[in-house]
Amino acid sequence: MKKDIHLRIEIDTYYQIKKLAEFNKTTVNEEVNNLLQEALHIKDIEKLLIAIQESVGSIKKDSLYTKQLVVQTYADLNLEPIDPASSESLDKFNKKYHKRNMND
Question: Which residues, other chains included, contact 67 with Cβ-Cβ below 8 Å and sequence gap of 6+?
Fold first, then answer.
């Protein structure tokens, strides 16, 4: 279904759309409609990307928190004197963890 409306656009924009219509062998109206649809689609994609970016940030914070929680739990077990920088067990875990994440 189409709606007949009147638009006022800059003359330079009109000529650009007219060239695009000639190139695509369509009408100016069809090109304006296509451009508007693409702009709306890009806005939807932009919103989706922002949501994904926020989710990735949240996941990163959670994974850092989880890692620190594992280190603290390991220290609280008193299995060996713990210094995260010099613990062989934690060093082994970290190397395995980083190797696994690099392969993903």
Answer: 97
Kindly state the tokens that stand for 90. 């934690």
Report whether 20 contacts 31 (CB < 8 A): yes
Count of residues making up the chain: 104
Residue 82 reports pLDDT greater than 90: no
How many other CB atoms are there within 10 angstroms of residue 56's CB atom?
A: 10
Q: What is the pLDDT of residue 10?
A: 94
Q: What is the pLDDT of residue 104?
A: 47
Instruction: Report how far residue 93's alpha carbon sits from residue 82's, in angstroms, rounded to the nearest whole number.
Output: 14
Place of tokens 């693409």: 38
What are 41-55's pLDDT values in tens digits? 999 999 999 999 999
Q: Which residues of 68-96 are buried (b: 16+ CB within 10 A; e: fewer)?
A: eeebeebbeeeeeebeeeebeebeeeeee
Q: How far apart are CA 104 and CA 102, in angstroms?
A: 6
